[in-house]
Amino acid sequence: MKSLLIISATGRSGNTTVTCLLARHLLCACRCRVLVLDLADPPRCAHVLAGYRPHAIASGIQVLAPKDSGRCALGGCVHVLNADAVAALVSRDDPDRTRYYANLRHLLLVAARWFDVCLIDAPALPDLRAVCAEALVDTALSPVAVSSGCVSCASEVINGRYGIRNVRARLNPALRFTGILPVVATPAAMGEAWMKVMETTLREWLIADAASPRGYVWLPHLAFVRRPGSFVPGKSERAPRDAKVHEDLPENLRAQAACLAVLTQQLEAIGDNTAPALRHVQVCDA
Q: Tens digits of per-residue pLDDT, 37-95?
């Protein structure tokens, strides 16, 4: 099972939006069995996904019953698991989150039997629940809302005390960083000053896309998308990477389609082996 952590240094950065859009894309375009693990407080992924293909999306305390594995293997599925529904992840007497780390590690090991991909929507740093997830996953992605604080938010995720570099050095040497994903209020905002600052300051951390005129992927805010599911390919299709395929769509829908396709390619590039942190027991005393 491949694991992707969606993480940020502030709330309302687009974590839940990215998690849910990518989960639906992996279901429709790749027929993947996707576990959405919602560590956020409050959890919102189940609510966002509830109205989309209900026969293929489920939620509950149990990760997945073996009797459902055949159906999921054929057409894919999305299962949403809220952390607050798992007793082992809501212990109040665990200030250092050491038991939280051990229980989260065990949960991911169990889930690996039934799912192809695990997407984790985490609380904002420096929450130690997010740090524990960083110590266990294959890769991390950071949506950043384009605003006056975008550079400092991105810097905290990359270089902060609990940022990618420190966690990689101390807890998870194999941790990859997919990159910074700008979340833009409207396509017109791509020309604003803060977008230019982000391009100049964080260029090496943006997610490259040779097919994009800007050379990197970005995500329009969900409120400005005509219909959230309209760009998602049919369940038997794989999202094409030819820019001409989406030329008849508005710019925001083209950007979303390209963004999800590139993120899927990044996930596919990760080896299918279990993450090193799941193979070797290590207590997280961050």
A: 999 888 889 888 876 655 556 666 554 454 455 546 567 889 999 988 888 888 777 78
Tell me the residue type at 38. D
Distance (Å, rounded) from C-alpha 214 to C-alpha 248? 19
pLDDT surpasses 70 at 280: no
First to last CA, the chain: 25
Give the pLDDT confidence of 224-252 residue by residue, as tens digits. Answer: 443 444 434 333 344 444 444 445 457 77
* CA distance to 11, 19, 70, 134, 205, per residue, from 142 (Å): 12, 11, 33, 12, 10
Round to whole Å and give the CA distance between 174 and 242: 32
Tell me the three state secondary structure of residue 241. coil
CATH superfamily of 2-270: P-loop containing nucleotide triphosphate hydrolases (3.40.50.300)
pLDDT for 239 equals 42
Residue 220, strand partner residues: 184
Total H helices, total E strands in the chain: 10, 8
Cis peptide before 276 (omega within 30 of 0): no
Structure tokens belonging to residue 278 = 């799941």
**Domain locations along the chain:** 2-270
116 to each of 11, 156, 175, how far by Cα in Å? Answer: 28, 30, 18
pLDDT at 246: 46
Joined tokens for residue 134: 């960083």
